[in-house]
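Side project, low priority. Logging it here so it doesn't get lost.
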Amino acid sequence: MIKIKKPKPGYPLFRILIKKTLGKKAAEEYRFHPVRRWRFDFAVPELMIAIEIEGGIFGKARLGHSTGSGIKKDMEKYNMATLMGWKVLRYMPEQVGECMRDLEILKRSQPPELPRGKYL
């Protein structure tokens, strides 16, 4: 039997808005560490920007990432990503507007890209 992954809530909208805001396609489930199996929900590697969608925060059941050990593992992942130079932005699925705002701020803080083949 083939297991088909159900898309996470908000993913299609985040994917579209990242492309619209940054002008670059985001990689999904991007593995950023050479040894660990850590992945970002979305990443734009050339800009070193990662976006994590945090779900199940307010659920009554303490599962996965919302347990003490899950939170500790996430902290290790996010700290290592920061030490590697990534800008990691974290949102709940309904925070699409905040994500777009923050990406605009980051876009303005990035140095402009030089045209290919031209050097200073």
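Brief comment: Helices lie at 11-22, 68-83, 96-109.
Revisit when time allows.
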